[in-house]
Design brief:
The complex is a heterodimer of chains A (about 400) and B (about 270).
Chain A (H helix, E strand, L loop, with lengths): L18 E2 L3 E2 L5 H17 L3 H15 L5 E3 L1 H7 L3 E5 L10 H14 L4 E6 L3 H13 L2 E7 H6 L1 H9 L3 E5 L6 H15 L3 E4 L7 H11 L1 H14 L6 E6 L4 H7 L10 E10 L16 E4 L2 E4 L25 H8 L3 E7 H14 L6 H13 L8 E5 L8 H8 L4
Parallel strand pairs in A: 4-14, 5-6, 5-8, 6-7, 9-10, 9-14, 10-13
Antiparallel strand pairs in A: 1-2, 3-4, 11-12
Helix pairs in contact in A: 2-4, 4-5, 4-9, 5-7, 9-11, 10-11, 13-14
Chain B lengths: L4 H11 L4 E7 L5 H11 L5 E5 L10 H12 L4 H14 L5 E5 L1 H7 L1 H11 L3 E4 L8 H9 L3 E2 L1 E3 L5 H9 L4 E5 L13 H12 L6 E5 L15 E4 L1 H12 L4 H16 L1
Helix pairs in contact in B: 2-4, 2-11, 3-10, 4-6, 5-6, 10-11
Classes of the chains: A alpha/beta (about 400), B alpha/beta (about 270).
């Protein structure tokens, strides 16, 4: 029986082969990447306990990322729904407009320590790419971003931002032309250039070390949140629900990591995957729909696939969640029953966007709107003393074209 | 112990004082029937045939093999078709070693044991699994050995000396040296001299093992590497199939012509 350990960060609860719960994660990589991955592992394990490096990280989190991002009460939405108190952690107010800045900043700091001059990364919604290009510019690294051509078309504002930051966007035409192919192409590029180039994987996916670096970076969100909750409520309240969207799962892990040790009766963790268009079979919700264990991008995890092991195409209005796989650590949280996972459809996310932006002065992107959809569904059934906190992990500026087309209006 | 077909093939080519020529084509490219025809025809010149079982998320393949892969998948290739291609090929060319090559998820979904058993049944001589590196591949490699299937380990320019030793120790009949930091089909960006230097480092660890070189090998470069035990050409052939399909020419003839010319350069 799989069991979570207490007092050890989840990212460190893997065995010597890199597997969480004996079966999620690992390193399914070509021989050429073995050494770069081992080198990166050694470097990171060294840096994360190095005081100077930690000070540097904390300095940039505070003065560059803009940490801590605010925790605000959504009074109008709470009153409207008439149940739980709904709060939002406004991670979208971080520099650049999303949680991806944490991982991007840490990767650039590591690349500098590794004496690499180039950095490459994948992106779906464009936030991982935008942030990496921003941080690369800040730290003087040359940057290439791999992005599916379908995503380039639907997330134009972020592409403009990447180019402005001096990054080169490499359009990916293969397969479904979305995030899954961008990650593959980025890995291929790294196979060919690993001697000079550092690779940043944009979420808690990929070979073991990339899951760890990303989780270690986004975990800052929950450290901030813990302090904020304590100062707001004088203690950790008795009934909390932390709701977060899940694509690869980097923001959700970051939002939850400090709270995993708490009893789930006190702090519920709810992940919301992309259900895709209503009645569509092409969802991007492997955890919700009990997808089989498979290997994608160097790790074993639940993944949308057919019986032969071909990876399925997915469809979602939100490019950031439009990914057939999911982080091995979320698979582990699912199987140990610490977190529960569900999905919201495109339509539910859009309706959530409409309601939230009508009642509150916030503008969450389509990814966190999946989480808001779940909160809206649940809140009326919950008691007044339940604190529901939604991670508003991205800003909707990037979604202006989609929202315009689908809602015929922009806020 | 019975000498494996892979080993006896290398013995033969060594006797002829030349490297073995290994070809790589994707099963089902550009359709099931033609891919079998290509194999039948090129095996008149090739010593060992590597056959790719196509996966739609190939993280280590360059553009040409990706095109072959997507074409084969689009034409509906399934893993059972790959096995039937091998079976039919082996019926005609029982003495030609066949090495299947692909990504681990497809084997994993099929079940390790199931996959190996069927490989044995249809006459597969060796397996290359690109994303199952050493030491993660230890258990799987043992299972292969039990069925007299060679599990082929890979070594790359980034492989450390220490690791190289361990990989060689656990290797079977053949070891695959990746010539450079690249996906398949990249332009040869390292000098043949440097490649052979690395090759000799591996070879000197165990002279009995057959070491083949792959990645970046074309008609242009093959002649300069003929000191190796074997040379693998893949992307050049996959690229030729793409070109033939585009020009509505017969890929069987065109690919065979390349393989014949490659062979002539190493005799």
């Amino acid at each position: 029986m799989m069991k979570l350990k207490k007092k050890i960060p989840l990212i460190d609860q893997h065995d010597k082969h890199g597997f969480w719960g004996g079966k999620f994660g690992g390193n399914f990589i070509p021989e050429t990447l073995k050494k770069p991955v081992d080198d990166l592992t050694d470097l990171f394990e060294n840096l994360r306990y190095n005081k100077k490096f930690l000070n540097q990280r904390n300095y940039y989190f505070k003065n560059y990322v803009g940490s801590p991002t605010p925790l605000i009460k959504l009074q109008n939405l709470s009153d409207h729904l008439g149940g739980a108190q709904i709060w939002s952690k406004m991670v979208s107010e971080a520099n650049g407009g999303a949680h991806k800045i944490y991982n991007a900043t840490v990767h650039c700091l590591i690349a500098k320590k590794a004496n690499k001059k180039y950095i490459v990364g994948d992106t779906g919604a464009g936030y991982a790419g935008k942030m990496l290009s921003m941080a690369a510019k800040k730290f003087g690294l040359k940057c290439k971003i791999f992005m599916g051509i379908k995503d380039m078309k639907r997330q134009k504002p972020n592409c403009e931002a990447m180019r402005k930051n001096g990054a080169e966007i490499i359009p990916v035409y293969s397969g479904s032309q979305t995030l899954v192919d961008a990650v593959s192409e980025c890995m291929r590029y790294w196979v060919s250039n690993c001697d000079t180039t550092h690779m940043c994987v944009g979420s808690t996916v990929g070979p073991n070390i990339f899951v760890k670096i990303c989780g270690w970076s986004t975990a800052q969100i929950s450290r901030e949140l813990k302090v904020q909750i304590k100062s707001e409520f004088k203690k950790i309240p008795n009934k909390i629900e932390l709701i977060n969207c899940v694509g690869g799962g980097s923001s959700a892990y970051g939002f939850w990591s400090e709270f995993i040790d708490y009893d789930k009766k006190q702090i519920k963790l709810i992940g919301v995957e992309a259900g895709g268009p209503k009645n569509s079979k092409l969802h991007a919700a492997p955890l919700t729909n009990n997808a089989k264990l498979g290997i994608l991008h160097g790790a074993a995890a639940y993944v949308c696939q057919n019986s032969e092991g071909q990876i399925s195409e997915t469809e979602s209005i939100s490019a950031g969640l439009d990914y057939p796989g999911v982080s091995p650590i979320h698979c582990y949280l699912k199987d140990t029953k610490r977190a529960s996972y569900t999905s919201a459809t495109d339509e539910e996310a859009l309706n959530a966007y409409k309601l939230v932006t009508k009642l509150e002065k916030i503008n969450p992107s389509l990814e966190p709107c999946h989480a808001f959809a779940e909160a809206i569904k649940n809140a009326p059934k919950l008691s007044k003393d339940t604190i529901v906190i939604v991670n508003s992990c991205g800003d909707a500026k990037k979604d202006r074209d989609i929202l315009k087309a689908r809602l015929r209006k922009i806020k | 112990m019975k000498v494996s077909l892979i080993n006896s093939t290398f013995k033969k080519t060594k006797k002829e004082n030349r490297p073995a020529l290994l070809t790589y084509t994707v099963a089902g490219d550009n359709n099931k029937k033609i891919s079998l025809e290509i194999l039948k025809s090129i095996s008149n010149y090739a010593d060992i045939c590597e056959i790719g079982f196509p996966h739609n998320t190939p993280i280590a393949d360059g553009g040409q093999i990706q095109s072959s892969t997507y074409r084969a998948l689009k034409n509906g290739i399934k893993i059972k078709d790959v096995f039937s291609i091998v079976k039919n090929f082996k019926k005609l060319k029982a003495d030609k070693p066949v090495i299947l090559m692909g990504y681990y998820n497809m084997i994993y979904q099929y079940g390790d044991n199931n996959f190996i058993n069927i490989c044995k049944k249809v006459g597969v001589d060796g397996l290359i699994v690109i994303d199952l590196p050493y030491p993660e591949n230890k258990i799987f490699a043992k299972k292969c050995k039990k069925k007299n299937i060679s599990f082929i380990q890979l070594i790359s320019p980034t492989t450390s000396k220490n690791r190289m030793k361990k990989i060689m120790q656990d290797s079977h009949d053949m070891v695959y040296y990746i010539s450079m930091l690249s996906t398949t089909g990249g332009k040869l960006k390292v000098s043949p001299k440097k490649i052979l230097e690395n090759y000799n480092k591996i070879k000197n660890l165990n002279k009995k093992k057959n070491i083949v070189i792959g990645f970046g090998i074309t008609e242009k470069t093959i002649g300069s590497l003929k000191k190796a035990d074997g040379l693998v050409v893949g992307s050049a052939l996959c690229g030729e199939i793409s070109k033939s399909v585009e020009k509505r020419q017969n890929p069987v003839t065109n690919v065979t012509n390349i393989v014949r010319r490659l062979k002539n350069k190493i005799i």
